[in-house]
Specification:
Jelly Rolls, EC 3.2.1.25, Ig-like_GH2, GH, 15 helices, globular, Beta-mannosidase-like_N2, glycosidase
Length: about 775
C-alpha cells in the first residue's frame, strides 16, 4: 500500500490585497476576476511572481524594495490531486512541513484547520468520507502577517528595533522584517514539502535516544530510549515486545524488552563504544539503530535512526572576573573542547531555497576546521538534512530558539504559542548527536537594557517556559537562557562585562584595540569584521553605473548594507564603517574599486585571524570563539567570509590556517619581544619541525623542533622586535608528513597597501591553499 503521496510541485496561486475582497471560502474565488499564476511548492510567492514576469530579480540593485506592497496581500494556493486507491477508506493526514505563516486549509471544500507559525509542521487529519477516490482539491489561504500582527494582543513591556517591531507578534523568522544582515522581505509561501500520509494501525510514534553515561576510560557507555507506540492495547500482555538493534562498524548491540503499556523506556549498555567527537578531536561515527515493535514474532512497526553516542557537559558559572575566575566550557566525553566555529544565519531571504544550499554551505565549515556552528535566533529552525550533515562531520550545534534582539510579549497567548513551538522543535531535533545546546534566544537579555528595562530575569519565556519544555522532552541536554545570558548576579553588579559568554561587537574600530584585547569573557559567541565581496559578485547585484566611485550613500550600496530605512537607516552606516576600517589599517580609502575590495578583504582577514588566534593563545581562559559569520543569505556587504554566490574572501583562507588542530601562532608584543606558541586542539600529542622567517629579507628568525601535548599549548620561544617596524613574519611547520603555514603582521597602522600587495603572494605560497592574484576578483 502507498504510505505517502508527495504533493510538491506546481500549484495555482491567486492573490490580491487583503480586505479588497471578502473571501471566506475557496468557492467564492470562482466569481471573482483575480490574477492567477503558477506556483512552486516548496516555494515563496515572490519567486513565483518573478518567474511569471511580474517582479524583477529582487536581489539586483534596489529591487528588493518592490516587495513592500505585497506584505499586505493574501495568497490562495490550490492543488488538484488524485489519491492512490490503496488510501481509500484509510485514516490519512495532510502534512505541511513549513507554511509561512497565517494559514487556513480546505480539502474538497471542507475546512480542516488553521495555523499561524512558520517554524513547525502542520498535520491535519482527514476523515474517511472527505478524501475522494478520484480527484481531490486542496486550498491553502495565507493571510498578511503584517495585518495579523496588528491584531495581536500585547503589553507595555514589548520592545523591538524600530524597523522590525512586527516580529514580536507573529511566529515568523525575525530577520524577514529587516535586519542588519538581511533585507526586509516579509514573504509568504508553502516553503517546505507537503504530503498526504496514510496513518498506520501500528506505529512507533515517538523515539527519543539519549546518552546516559560514558565512563572516563571511554570503554563503556549507556544509552537510553524513551518510546511511545500505537497499537491494539490487547497486545500489551500477549507477547508484545520492543527490540533495539544498533551497529557502527564492528560495534553493535541488541536488546529486547516486553511492552506492557504504550509508553516506556529502556537502557542499553555498550562495551567499547565508538564515541562521537567534535571535528579535530576524533571521528564522528554514527550508529544505525533499528527499533521494532514485535507481536508474537511478527514485526508490526519499524523505524531506523542514526544516533551518536557522546556525553556532553556545559560547565558554566553565573559570572566571571579576573580575580575569582569563572567558566563557560563544553566537555565532550569528559574532554574539554576548544570551540572554533561560525554563526549560521539565514541561507536565503526566501526560505524555500534553504535546503538546496545546506550541503555546499556546511562544507565550508568542514573546510575551515570548524567544530561548532551556532544557529542564530533571528533565523528559522533548520531541517534534518542540516543536522544530518553536522552529525556526520562532527559539527556541534548551538541552537537558539527563534527570538532575537527584542523584549517579547509575556501574554498567555504568546506563551502558549512558544510552548507549542518549542515542544515541536525539541521533539523533532533531539535525536541528533550534533545538537549540544538549547539557547533561549539571541541578545534578548541585552535588549532589556537597550530599552531601559531593568532586569531580563523577569522574562518568563526563557526563565520558566523553555526550560520546562526541555525538561519534559530533552532533559539530557544543556540549556542557556539567552546569548549572552545576564544572570541575576551580573544584573546586580551593574557590569555586563562579567558575563562569561559574550558578543564582542563594541565600536568595531581597529581590530587590535583595547576593546578586543582586554575582554574578560571565556566564550565569544559573536564577533565580526566587515569584508567587501569579490568584484565578480558585486557586479551581480550592483548595477554598473553605481559601482564606483565610492559613495557611502549610494542607494544600491546602502540597500545591500542592509538598510531598510534609506540613507539614515540604522544599518546605512555599515558602508561607511567598511570604508573606515580600510582607512584605519591603510591610512586612506583607495582610489579604485579593485583596491577598495582588496584592502577591505585584507582588513577583515587580519581581524578574523587575530580574533581566533587571540582566543587560542589564551586557552583555557578562553574556551571558544564563534565568529560572525561564514556565508551570506543574500548579496550584501557584510562580515561574512563567503558571499551569497559562494565566492570566498581572503578571510576564509586565513581562518582555514588559524583553525587547524595544531597551529603555530605569534602573540602580541610585550617587552620588545613576541611570543611564539604551538596550540594543539586535539586528543593526540603532536611533534614536528618549524621555521619562522622575515617576509622581506628571508632571514630565519627561529626554527627547530616542537612538541605539544594533547589539548595543550606550548611556548616555543620569543623573537625580539622593534615597535618602529612594520614586518611580516612567515611561519611554516611540518607535522606527520604535511606542511602547514601561518603568518603574523607586526606594526601599527597605517600600513602600506602596496607593501601588503607584495607580501600577499608570499603568504599564499606558504601552503599554496589559495592564489594571491585571485583575491578580490
Amino acid at each position: 500500500m502507498t504510505k505517502e503521496l508527495c504533493l510538491d510541485g506546481q500549484w495555482k496561486l491567486v492573490y490580491f490585497p487583503q480586505g479588497e475582497w471578502q473571501v471566506h471560502h475557496p468557492d467564492e474565488l470562482n466569481s471573482l476576476d483575480l490574477p492567477c499564476i503558477n506556483a512552486q511548492v516548496p516555494g515563496n510567492v515572490e519567486l513565483d511572481l518573478v518567474r511569471s514576469g511580474l517582479l524583477p530579480e529582487p536581489f539586483l540593485g534596489t529591487n528588493i524594495n518592490e516587495l513592500r506592497p505585497y506584505e499586505l496581500y493574501e495568497w490562495w494556493y490550490s492543488l488538484t490531486f488524485t489519491a492512490p486507491p490503496t488510501m481509500a477508506g484509510k485514516r490519512t493526514k495532510l502534512v505541511f512541513q513549513g507554511v509561512d505563516c497565517c494559514a487556513t486549509y480546505w480539502l474538497n471544500g471542507e475546512e480542516l484547520g488553521s495555523s499561524d507559525n512558520m517554524f513547525i509542521e502542520v498535520s491535519l487529519e482527514t476523515t474517511d468520507s472527505l478524501l475522494h477516490d478520484g480527484e481531490n482539491t486542496l486550498f491553502v489561504r495565507l493571510r498578511s502577517p503584517i495585518i495579523e500582527a496588528g491584531q495581536r494582543s500585547t503589553d507595555a513591556i514589548c520592545y523591538a528595533q524600530i524597523p522590525n517591531g512586527e516580529q514580536l507578534f507573529v511566529r515568523k523568522a525575525a530577520h524577514s522584517f529587516g535586519w542588519d544582515i538581511m533585507p526586509r522581505a516579509v514573504s509568504a509561501g508553502i516553503w517546505r514539502s507537503v504530503s498526504l500520509v496514510a496513518c498506520e494501525e501500528h506505529a512507533l510514534t515517538d523515539l527519543y535516544f539519549y546518552t546516559l553515561s560514558v565512563d572516563k576510560s571511554l570503554s563503556r557507555a549507556e544509552i537510553g530510549l524513551y518510546y511511545r507506540v500505537a497499537t491494539d492495547p490487547a497486545y500489551f500482555y500477549h507477547g508484545l515486545e520492543i527490540r533495539v538493534s544498533g551497529r557502527s562498524g564492528a560495534s553493535h548491540f541488541q536488546l529486547s524488552r516486553p511492552v506492557l503499556f504504550n509508553v516506556g523506556s529502556l537502557t542499553v549498555s555498550i562495551e567499547n563504544p565508538l564515541l562521537w567527537w567534535p571535528n579535530g578531536y576524533g571521528e564522528a561515527p554514527l550508529y544505525e539503530v533499528t527499533t521494532e515493535l514485535i507481536h508474537q514474532g511478527r514485526v508490526l512497526a519499524s523505524r531506523t535512526e542514526r544516533i551518536g553516542i557522546r556525553h556532553v557537559q556545559l560547565i558554566r558559572t553565573e559570572t566571571t572576573t579576573v580575580e575569582s575566575g569563572g567558566e563557560f566550557l563544553f566537555k565532550i566525553n569528559h574532554t574539554p573542547i576548544m570551540c572554533k566555529g561560525s554563526n549560521w544565519v539565514p541561507m536565503d531571504a526566501f526560505h524555500s531555497r534553504d535546503a538546496s544550499r545546506y550541503e555546499k554551505a556546511l562544507q565550508l565549515f568542514s573546510e575551515t576546521g570548524c567544530n561548532i556552528v551556532r544557529c542564530w535566533g533571528g533565523n528559522v529552525y533548520e531541517d534534518h538534512a542540516f543536522f544530518d550533515f553536522c552529525d556526520r562531520h562532527g559539527l556541534m550545534v548551538w541552537q537558539d530558539f527563534a527570538m532575537a534582539c527584542a523584549v517579547y510579549p509575556q501574554t498567555p497567548e504568546f506563551s502558549e504559542s512558544m510552548r507549542l513551538e518549542a515542544s515541536a522543535v525539541v521533539r523533532k531535533l533531539r535525536n541528533h548527536a550534533s545538537l549540544v545546546l538549547w539557547c533561549g534566544d539571541n541578545e534578548c537579555d541585552e535588549a532589556y537594557g537597550w530599552y531601559g528595562l531593568p532586569d531580563p530575569n523577569v522574562n518568563s519565556i526563557t526563565r520558566n517556559l523553555l526550560p520546562q519544555v526541555i525538561q519534559l522532552h530533552d532533559p539530557h541536554r544543556a540549556y542557556l537562557p539567552s546569548s549572552p545570558y545576564l544572570s541575576p548576579e551580573v544584573i546586580r553588579s551593574g557590569n555586563m562585562n562579567l558575563a562569561p559568554e559574550r558578543h564582542l561587537w563594541g565600536p568595531r574600530d581597529y581590530y587590535k584595540s583595547s576593546y578586543y584585547k582586554t575582554s574578560n569573557d571565556h566564550f565569544i559567541s559573536e564577533i565580526g569584521y566587515h569584508g567587501c565581496p569579490n568584484l565578480a559578485s558585486i557586479q551581480k547585484f550592483i548595477e554598473s553605473d553605481h559601482l564606483w566611485p565610492f559613495n557611502s550613500k549610494d542607494e544600491q550600496w546602502v540597500a545591500h548594507a542592509t538598510a531598510i530605512s534609506g540613507y539614515e537607516g540604522h544599518n546605512a552606516t555599515r558602508i561607511q564603517l567598511m570604508a573606515n576600517q580600510i582607512k584605519e589599517l591603510f591610512g586612506a580609502i583607495p582610489e579604485s574599486l579593485e583596491d577598495f575590495i582588496l584592502a577591505s578583504q585584507i582588513s577583515q582577514a587580519e581581524a578574523k585571524k587575530f580574533f581566533i588566534e587571540t582566543a587560542r593563545l589564551k586557552k583555557w581562559r578562553k574556551t571558544g570563539i564563534i565568529w560572525w559569520n561564514m556565508i551570506d543569505g543574500w548579496p550584501q556587504f557584510s562580515d561574512a567570509v563567503v558571499d551569497y554566490y559562494y565566492s570566498k574572501k581572503l578571510a576564509f583562507h586565513y581562518i582555514q590556517r588559524s583553525q587547524v588542530p595544531v597551529c603555530i601562532m605569534i602573540d602580541e608584543p610585550a617587552s620588545w619581544h613576541v611570543r611564539v606558541a604551538a596550540g594543539n586542539d586535539s586528543r593526540e600529542s603532536a611533534a614536528g619541525t618549524y621555521r619562522i622567517w622575515d617576509g622581506d629579507t628571508n632571514e630565519t628568525l627561529m626554527e627547530g623542533s616542537f612538541t605539544v601535548e594533547a589539548n595543550g599549548t606550548t611556548e616555543l620561544g620569543k623573537i625580539p622586535i622593534s615597535h618602529a617596524k612594520q614586518q611580516l613574519f612567515l611561519i611554516q611547520w611540518n607535522l606527520n608528513g604535511r606542511t602547514y603555514g601561518n603568518h603574523y603582521l607586526l606594526g601599527f597602522p597605517a600600513l602600506s597597501l602596496e607593501a601588503y600587495k607584495g607580501w600577499l603572494p608570499q603568504i599564499a605560497a606558504i601552503t599554496n591553499q589559495f592564489q594571491a592574484d585571485e583575491i578580490g576578483r
